[in-house]
Amino acid sequence: MPRAEAQQASWAAVRVLPGAVPAARYRMRRAVGVVVLALASAAVVVGLGLLAGVAGDAHARAVVPAGTVQVTVEPGESIWDVARRTVPAAGSAGTAGTAAVVERIAADNALPVDAAPLPAGLALRVPV
């Protein structure tokens, strides 16, 4: 086979048929599709996380009773201990329930939310 015919035959093998998608365009479409799918998946995960957080907050607020009563702090107790002692139902809601009660006690009594022991004999308003 002469050289000109061989060169023409090699070009014929590379020719793209009309209406066919070139390989580079296909790879680009596939890459864009993967990125769009990843972003959609991330949006679903974030949305479900936010939905779960809102539901958890609502449950924690439901655990905090509306009324209050005055209690006296015992020696060595922190605000967290007082919350667990006075509102045992908050403990069944997990840490979020106890944290909600602690935040309410701190707000009602102008105290910081920390684990430091409170002065023994201090009178606190706590939810019941």
Please provide a written account of the structure.
The protein is mainly alpha-helical and 128 residues long. Helix content is 63%, strand content 8%. Strands 1-2 form a two-stranded antiparallel ribbon. Helix 2 (23-63) crosses helix 5 (95-109) and helix 3 (79-86) packs across helix 5 (95-109). It is rod-shaped, with a radius of gyration of 33 Å. The protein starts with a helix and ends with a strand.
Strand order of the largest sheet: 1-2
Structural class: mainly alpha
Most strands sheet: 2 strands, antiparallel
Task: Please state the overall shape, judged from the principal axes of the Cα atoms.
Answer: rod-shaped
In whole angstroms, how far apart are the ends? 99 Å
- Radius of gyration, rounded? 33 Å
Helix content: 55-70%
Low-confidence spans: none
Mean pLDDT: 80
What are the secondary-structure elements, in order, as H or E?
A: HHEHHHE
Strand content: 5-15%
In total, how many beta strands?
Answer: 2
